[in-house]
Amino acid sequence: MLTPLAAVWPKATLPEPPPITEEAHRGGERESDLRFSFEPNAKQVSLCGEFNGWSINATPMKRDDAGHWETTVALAPGRHEYKFVVDGNWKHDPLARVNVWNQNGTLNSVAQVWP
After folding, report:
1. 3, 26, 87, 103 from 51: Cα distances, Å
2. What is the pLDDT of residues 31-53, one digit of tens each?
3. If you ran DSSP here, which 8-state letter would residue 19 be given?
4. Burial of 7 by CB count in 10 Å (0-12 exposed, 13-18 middle, 19+ buried)?
5. Whole-prediction pTM value?
6. Is residue 41 within 8 Å of residue 16, measured between CB atoms?
7. In angstroms, rounded to a whole number, what is the distance separating the alpha carbons of residues 112 and 21?
C-alpha cells in the first residue's frame, strides 16, 4: 500500500506575519516588488504561480547580460506558491528557503510577503 505524500512530507509552516499596525492598516494592503531569478542554460523561462493563475504565458522572464533569467512581480502581502517553466519543464526554485509538496507530488516554492 502506498503512503500519501502528505503523510510523509507535511506542508512546511511559515512563521506568523508581524501584526498589522494602525499605520500599515490605513495604507491598505501594500504590494511588494519581488525579484525572481533563475540561472539555467535555457532558451525560455517563465514564472508561474498562484498570483498569475499558474499561466505559463503571463510572466515571461528576460535574460540579462550575465545570462540570468529575471523578472520582478508586485505581490500582495501573504504566502505565494510558484514555480518556473524552463524550456517547457516545470521546476521549483532551488534557491527558495521554503519548498512544499503539491497535489502532483512535485515541489512548489514559496515566497512570503509581509505587510
Report:
1. 31, 24, 21, 18
2. 789 999 988 789 999 999 999 99
3. P
4. exposed
5. 0.73
6. no
7. 18
